[in-house]
From TrEMBL:
Segments forming domain Sulfotransferase: 1-155
Annotated keywords: Transferase
Family stated for the protein in its record: Belongs to the sulfotransferase 1 family.
Gene that produces this protein: Sult6b1_0
Protein's recorded name: Sulfotransferase
GO molecular-function term, one example from the UniProt record: sulfotransferase activity
Pfam families membership: Sulfotransfer_1
EC number(s) given by UniProt: 2.8.2.-
Source species of the chain: Chordeiles acutipennis
Listed InterPro entries: P-loop_NTPase (IPR027417), Sulfotransferase_dom (IPR000863)
Gene3D superfamilies in the record: P-loop containing nucleotide triphosphate hydrolases
Length: 169
């Protein structure tokens, strides 16, 4: 199992934009309304912190590889190499480069109408990291950091995310 995790602030930001264009999901008048719902576990898919906490139980399982979105954005070649090694797939340098290019956000967004139909425009928005800085107030940032620390900060997944988010920023 490949477990891809992401900075909870960027998860919230991404889902805010996604839910406001995806009609079956609740939409929110403002970012502040969404933030309250996200922090009080009122999301259609559940609480992201609880999701991470559940997956944390399996971090030592040899059949589970955890990687962060931030790692893949920072060094996609190394990320693909590590994923291929985990699955026991041998790649030539040419194959490796092809996978890296074809799995880039820009490439997937460009081909999204072919791969996902009309839904592609909804799924692929920006693909960056730290977009949360465009929405979060200082107070919201502090609340998210506090919730992160209290709920998953001392877990293996929490430590991995903290390293990617705070130590490399």
């Amino acid at each position: 199992i490949l477990l891809l995790i992401r900075n909870p602030k960027d998860v919230a930001t991404s889902f805010y934009h996604f839910s406001n264009v995806m009609s079956p999901l609740p939409s929110y008048e403002t970012w502040d309304d969404f933030f309250v719902a996200f922090m009080t576990k009122k999301m259609p898919w559940g609480c992201y912190f609880e999701y991470l906490s559940e997956w944390n139980k399996y971090t030592d399982n040899e059949n589970v590889m955890t990687i962060t979105y931030e790692e893949l954005k920072e060094n996609p070649v190394l990320g693909v190499k590590n994923i291929a090694a985990f699955f026991g797939i041998s790649l030539t340098e040419k194959e490796l480069q092809s996978v890296v290019e074809r799995s880039s956000f820009q490439s997937m967004k460009k081909n999204s109408s072919k791969t996902h139909g009309a839904f592609g425009n909804i799924l692929f928005r920006k693909g960056g990291v730290s977009d949360w800085k465009n929405l979060f107030s200082e107070d919201q940032n502090e609340k998210m950091d506090k919730a992160f620390e209290e709920r998953i900060g001392r877990t293996k997944l929490g430590t991995k995310l903290k390293y990617e988010i705070y130590c490399k920023a």
